[in-house]
Amino acid sequence: MAKVVPNPFGKKGGLKHQSKVREVVEDMLEENLNTVEEFLVPTPEGSKSKRFVDVAGLDDNQDLIKLAQVGKTNAKGKPVKREREAIEDIEKATNKTVNFEYYEEKNTK
Asked: For 79, which DSSP code?
């Protein structure tokens, strides 16, 4: 029996997610930031020991300047629980605000 794969695109998300990530990367490049996708953030005091922020913007000294997480929102327009938890862990570990960019609202049916 074949295993059902919930996301055949893996960790980088589906096509809509990847498209939004590319938009965020382009925006950061316009701000003269160096970008890293799937940037590892150790979160030893978080609900997980590490997180990967979708896009990190760094300056020429490799200092972390800007963070962006891409995801879905719930019916109230807030990031879904998985994204909220990741954002909280990342902000706590980096002392930086994570900008949330949504690409799709969660189906409310």
From this structure: B
